[in-house]
Amino acid sequence: MRQRSRLTFDRWDFLATRVALTMIAVATTVFTVVLPVVQWLRGQPLSWRVETHRETTLSPTDVTPRDGVELVWPGSLDVSIPEASAWAWSVSLLPGLAITAIIVTVVAALWRLLGQIQAGRPFGASSVALLRTIGAALMTGALLLFGLTGFANGVVLEAAAELSGPPILTFEFGLPALLLTGGLVVAAMAEAFAYGTELADDVEGLV
């Protein structure tokens, strides 16, 4: 008999975990996609933050705000465009759409994986495939988010100000690096589950 501990899951724990995962997916969709679209439709200013990291990357002398545009410089560049174009709004939504796609994919896979664990079949080909799906989603999403954020930063900056000199590209490394690391860890876990599946199959063969 499997030894129980305080961290042993019962059906209510599995239910609570599924509810929490669903809430994360819904909240991510609302805050990264729905609310910006509502602001766009209501004619509110396009608000955006460009992480400059240091002033030598992008300094106040490099940008001249366009009419009606507000630029605030607290180490990063906060942009507020009162009448942003449909192009600027559309591109600004791309990073949020990428984040939502990553989270929804991971949550859907975790839902199915929890079902396998709750049914007492944690080691199986389907569990390995689900973990690999999660790992691939995180790693692919990290690269996609890195590129889309840099692209969106450039488009919003061009819409907000006149830039002196060549086009300025600013990329954000924090969240993409975290997603990439998480994807690698989950991929390693998938290999562990694959090994456990082989052992389980060997045991069944002996019995």
Uncertain segments of ≥5 residues (pLDDT<50)?
Answer: none
Strand arrangement in the largest pleated sheet:
1-4-3
**Could you report the average pLDDT, rounded to the nearest whole number?**
83
Element string (H = helix, E = strand):
HEEEEHHEH
Helix-and-strand structural type? mainly alpha
Number of helices: 4
Q: How many domain modules?
A: 1
Topology (SSEs and partners):
Blueprint: H1 11-41, E1 46-50, E2 63-65, E3 70-72, E4 77-81, H2 86-118, H3 125-160, E5 161-163, H4 174-206
Antiparallel strand pairs: 1-4, 2-5, 3-4
Helix pairs in contact: 1-2, 2-3, 3-4
Structure, described:
The protein has 207 residues and is mainly α. The chain has one domain. 64% of the residues lie in helices and 9% in strands. The chain has four helices and five strands, in the order H-E-E-E-E-H-H-E-H. It has helices at 11-41, 86-118, 125-160, 174-206; strands spanning 46-50, 63-65, 70-72, 77-81, 161-163. The strands form two sheets. A three-stranded antiparallel β-sheet has the order 1-4-3. It has a two-stranded antiparallel ribbon with strand order 2-5. The two termini are 18 Å apart.
